Amino acid sequence: MTPFIIPFFLSHQGCPHRCLYCNQHQSGGRRAEPLTSPGVTRGVEAGLSSSRLQPGASVEVAFYGGTFTALSRDRQSALLGAVAPFLKRNLVQGIRLSTRPDALPCDEVEFLESMGVTTIEIGAQSMDDKVLEMSRRGHTALDTREAAQRIKTAGLKLGLQLLPGLPGENQASLESTLQGILDLSPDEVRLYPALVIKGTPLAKLYQRGEYRPLTLEQAVEICAWMFKSLTRAGITVTRIGLQTSSELTQGLMAGPHHPSLGHLVKAEIFYRAIASSLQIKPARGSDVTLFVAPRDVSQAQGHARSNLSRLSRDFGNLKIKIKPDPDQPRGLFRWQGEMFSVI
Ligand code: SF4
After folding, report:
1. Which of 12, 257, 268, 272 is 20 to 30 A from 342 in CA distance terms?
2. Residues in a beta bridge with 7
């Protein structure tokens, strides 16, 4: 079951500099506010009394944004220490935080583990040093590999964040990034196709015509390819695309943002799997009924039922019907008695 997350956001706090594309005051959906230990206590109490918390769900407190591990040790202790009483009473089962790969020395990982941190997410962004340099990340792919190793050696869960579509990226660097991530076998990955946000150096490059973001179609295609490879390797893709917020809407200048990017990606994966099954096994007659798990129906149909019209167009006006079947496992579909996997 997906854990119930109680999030805190530290816009840019601890960051040694601004990366080329980053303006968390616009993309993170919240204004920076000094987070204090009493603020964490109040936030956790409010989260635990939320009506969205299902009985029996595991609860994680998350510190997102900024560079948590580059805050002073006192500040880290104060923020993490505020969660400790909830961990002790088993009201919260874990703490996760996100940070940069070059801000995770061995003693920091040991400290985080001692404070109850269970998952560390690293902003890898790319595994191509040229892309990292052009994005002014200030670290290399080796930093990511070493930090990932430290996290795994400490027995903590490893998450990696990727930003397809950064300047300097091409097919070869995308492929080496995906392979580099698979080699690290993280527990989870987030895919955030790069966006052009107002007030960033990337926005200036874009305005001068020196950077072109991915189109929505390209982002869907890249994320679908990555999602499939990661899922096949047993890695959970926890998020695709930034969450829509009024700040993001105001700050977005260009790029492949869509409020349901994850849905578009999974619908694309369904479309390709159905199309490939129809190529392997041509339909008998002009109608095909596919059975899918009830929760897969909208992905199989595609955004605004676009998969059905695409399949009809691509397969000689074939009429496709998608029907829910409670006995059908998720990620699989069945037609004319044969089972197919979308992954
Ligand atoms: S990408 Fe991460 S490290 Fe870079 S400025 Fe943004 S929050 Fe800081």
Report:
1. 257
2. 62
